[in-house]
Amino acid sequence: MLEQTENLPILSFSLGPVCKEIIKQYGDEIYPGDVIIHNDVFSMGNQNNDVAIFKPVFYKNVLVGWAAAKGHQADIGGAVQGGYNPNATEVWQEAIRIPAVKLYEKGKLRKDVWNLIFANIRLQMVQEDIKAQIGAVTLGERRLENFVVKYGIEVFEAHKLALFESTEKMMRAEIRAIPDGIYTGKSMVYFDGKHKGSKFPIQAIITVKSDQITFDFSKSSPQTKGFVNGTYTSSCSAITLTFLQMVNPNIPHNEGMIKPLKYIVPEGTILNASYPAATTFGNHLCPQIADSIFKALGPAIPEKVTAGWNHLLCSLFTGIHPRTNKKYVDICFLGMKGGSGAMKGTDGYDHIGMIDASGGVLDQDYEMYEQQTPHLILQHEFLCDSGGAGQWRGGLGTVTQILLKGNNTTMVVFGDGDVEKNYGLFGGKGSVLNQIKLTTPKGKKIIPMSKDIINSIPENTHYFQIAGGGGGYGNPKRRDKEKVKMDLKNEKISKNEALKIYGVK
């Protein structure tokens, strides 16, 4: 890993392990003009829908690097349109597996491979998105090649190694600032989509010794029989991005950054399920991994950890768009996440979006959502009193209401946070529980489980969702009174909460 985008770390951090698998698979049979596609979770992919494109970069017929791009695709085959199948128990019910295979070889399109893959994917738009990814890696190839041509291979290699070494030193210095010791933290995953009331602990055992840190998750739950399992790559990416929140934000994100980090995530656990397990939910175990790490390191570095982030509860709608008579798939990013936890000196972010993705406010455009789906957004706003109270307040969650205009809509629900609300730290309070509720035109109430499929939803059904806020940090009575008054003025908190929790009229 030389350089990467900052937007989607759980996807970006998964590119390096796959690249190593590609090199191992192809050996000397890698040529200029090759384009390789991959999504296979059992050869270091992180999630079936997250499809990667790789292109080798050559200088004078010498392989000097790779350009890679990964994107979450709207469909990837399997039993359910959209890729999320809470009823899945094995990988084939989730997706078409694509171990590393060349779409282009020496610059020539392999039409047979292209046709084989996309014959198993429902939506034409996926082909167009893959073409866009190929364009992205081609641009990356061109720019890296021009860079090497400009400065020469010797200068490139020398500076690459120097960058890795300096980054490694920066990370080791950050680890040395953490007191040596063994720290433990625990979180819980609720319901695997198959067994009501089921619980699955995530256990972090973190060992800090001098300038090295080990993240050991071997005592976490065995893998589930449902689709609530992670992969080695998704779990290690989650560990990395969580730890990065607690160190110098100016550390470059490259291979040197991860050299002092050791990961122990045994196969057969919920965080590294064995073949042929279903694993689509794996990316969304990131919050539970983060919680266990925050709780473990909180006593050691209390000023660098946050209170609990609201866990994801998401809905994915599929159906036939009545205006176009074409299939559509769209995830409702608007209400899927809620607020982040506060930390010492800083309130949490309001409606942050996924911990493994981008800011919630930027996740989805209202007008585009109403064009791409038949649905009408009625309300989407911050939810008053949803940020966990504290000396530093948790970020606010949201309330979302949508009128489902398509007939016989299917809704897939996946997530958590509807059983146990997130937690505050050092006297801070937690937030509210996640909730999704449907009301049909005839008044029938439907409350889906956190992993569920609801079929044949009639037109004009009302969709209601609450996404909780983040946890608070510190005693609420010590919050700056002017901040409380400003929150009250902006309707982020109610008069009752201002008086009862913060003691401010």
List the topology elements.
Elements: H1 9-12, H2 15-26, E1 35-38, E2 50-59, E3 62-72, E4 101-105, E5 108-109, H3 111-118, H4 124-151, H5 153-176, E6 181-190, E7 199-209, E8 212-216, H6 232-244, H7 255-258, E9 261-264, H8 286-297, E10 313-321, E11 326-331, H9 366-372, E12 376-382, E13 398-404, E14 409-415, E15 435-439, E16 445-446, E17 451-457, E18 461-467, H10 481-489, H11 495-500
Parallel strand pairs: 8-9
Antiparallel strand pairs: 1-2, 1-4, 2-3, 4-5, 6-7, 7-8, 10-11, 10-14, 12-13, 13-18, 14-17, 15-16, 15-18
Describe, in plain words, how this protein is organized in 3D.
This protein has 505 residues and is of the alpha+beta class. The protein has 11 helices and 18 strands. Helix 6 (232-244) crosses helix 8 (286-297).
